[in-house]
Design a protein that fits this description.
Distance between the termini: 26 Å
Structural class: mainly alpha
């Protein structure tokens, strides 16, 4: 079978793609104001959150297996796992805010863009940590 680290490298691309797609749908929603596109944003962001949990769990297993960290609390001293944990928490809060009717959709688009930027930065840190770049 494959080493456990391979699973993280397979799973991590799902939340990146889903959160990026949610941002694109969010941008289209702001331009067109079609309600069904708002549903696409919610579904892709929701699935991104689900896969984000799997990605963080597989990343933790990989980091322990490769000796990058010794315990769970070591993630707070490393920039990549800390950034990605904060990023997932950020998207959970943003997902909850989407249910509020009083929040301007352009403000949500801005927050979504910030979250995707944070996600890309965290992914870059992970690639550096794994000596992929």
């Amino acid at each position: 079978m494959y080493p456990k680290e391979v699973y993280h490298f397979l799973v991590l691309h799902f939340p990146i793609a889903l959160f990026s797609t949610a941002f694109i749908f969010d941008f289209i929603y702001v331009l067109t104001d079609k309600k069904e596109i708002k549903n696409y944003v919610c579904w892709t962001m929701g699935m991104g959150i689900l896969w984000g949990f799997f990605s963080i769990i597989s990343g933790y297993i990989t980091a322990v297996e490769l000796g990058y960290i010794e315990s769970f609390f070591d993630i707070f001293s490393k920039r990549h796992p800390l950034t990605m944990s904060l990023c997932l928490s950020y998207f959970i809060i943003l997902f909850i805010l989407r249910t509020k009717k009083s929040i301007n959709k352009k403000i949500l688009l801005f927050f979504n863009a910030f979250g995707v930027g944070l996600l890309m930065y965290g992914a870059h840190l992970g690639a550096q940590w794994a000596d992929r770049i």
